[in-house]
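Q: Study each token:
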Amino acid sequence: MKQENPKSLTALNRLIAAAEPMVEGGTRAVLGEGPLHPDLALVGEQPGDQEDLQGRPFVGPAGTLLNRAMAEAGIDRSEVYVTNAVKHFKFEPRGKRRLHARPNAGEVKRYRGWLEKELNFVQPKLVVAMGATAVLALEGKAIPVLKNRGAHLFPGHAGFITVHPSSLLRAPDDAARRTGFAAFVADLKAAKKLATSHRKAA
């Protein structure tokens, strides 16, 4: 990350958009979106194929599932800030397809400064880390998602750890998908309640 010191989220986003991708295959930055000072900020891994094409976070299959889960949890997406730990789509070409490639720890670390600045500008009441890459980016080290699922204090942020919605798409059968989805909705409800308690305490 360059040493520029942006003074606003707009300035930071200009810096991110102009920067070269720090992962293989990345074409353009996909910036976070949502209001400042929200109750919740949701952090995922990285943009996928559709996110890269459309330039918006969580608009592909995982985003569709996330939207459905938020609706069931009583969360309005327009009131939530949504972003990713890594700002570019890391992929491997397979013919005409672009296959998602998980960012490694070094790549996550290179993007971490941007995420920290972004969240400092957004100032959410609670940061929800969805999946291992988001946890790594927010915690600064790898910790198991399932063992630490639930409320968690990240450096500088009250947080909550849950799975990434894409993991539900990879469930082995319908029963596992239903169980996983219900648990994910329960996590979002718990995060919403926790964020509300932080808002009242502020």
Observations:
- The domain at 9-196 is CATH 3.40.470.10 (Uracil-DNA Glycosylase, subunit E).
- The first helix runs from residue 9 to 18.
- The beta strands are 40-44, 81-84, 91-94, 97-100, 126-130, 150-154, 157-162.
- The mean pLDDT is 94.
